[in-house]
Design goal:
Number of strands: 10
Shape: elongated
Number of helices: 2
Distance between the termini: 47 Å
Strand content: 25-35%
CATH topology: Nucleoside Triphosphate Pyrophosphohydrolase
Order of helices and strands: EEEEEEEHEEEH
Number of domains: 1
Largest sheet: 7 strands, mixed
Helix content: 10-25%
CATH superfamily: Nucleoside Triphosphate Pyrophosphohydrolase
Length: 180
């Protein structure tokens, strides 16, 4: 059976063959790696209206965001994005294409965002959501968006839709995802 947890106390040290300090089990030598978290989500639309959810949890409680969250073990990015949409808004999705992969090094996150079509406009607030909305472009609550990457994804969705270029986007030049 493969070992995947330390068997004794952990100490901070640079393991043999590595260049970074890690947490290492003093008894068995198991290395407890700390790696970036993967977030998955979608810019989902019903016709020309975009789905946003108002966060009912911290960080940024009360602000609008895309249906998105952390990937779970043993799921694909697509499965995670579908699950998050369902949990936060009751939405069922059909993916159109990979929209973007954003790097947020300050908080050790990678965000994988899909462009998706809602299978129905029937959405509702989930456990982590106080409200859901389907917004036309000129109705989007730009001043109340939770994170910079929400703005990027919405803008990238619009660019892709207008140009027909479905190549995945990345962080806008010079942007690292710091709060504004």
């Amino acid at each position: 059976m493969a070992q995947n947890t330390p068997q004794g106390p952990v100490v901070a040290k640079v393991p043999a063959g590595d260049t970074r300090e890690r947490l290492v089990c003093a008894d068995c030598g198991f290395v407890l790696y700390s790696n970036p978290k993967v977030m998955v989500g979608s810019v989902a639309h019903w016709q020309e209206r975009l789905l946003l959810v108002r966060r009912d949890i911290e960080p940024r409680r009360g602000f609008w965001t895309l249906p998105a969250g952390f990937m779970e073990n043993n799921e694909t990015t697509e499965e995670g994005a579908r699950r998050e949409a369902r949990e936060e808004s009751g939405a069922e999705l059909e993916f159109e294409h990979l929209l973007a992969v954003y790097n947020i090094p300050r908080i050790s996150q990678v965000q994988v965002i899909y462009a998706a079509r809602l299978l129905s406009p029937d959405v509702y607030a989930g456990d982590e959501t106080s409200e859901v909305g389907l917004f036309a472009w000129d109705e989007l609550p730009w001043d109340d968006l939770a994170f910079p990457s929400v703005r990027w994804a919405l803008q990238h969705w619009r660019e892709a839709r207008a140009s027909g270029d479905t190549a995945a986007r990345t962080n806008p030049p010079g942007e690292t995802g710091d709060y504004r």
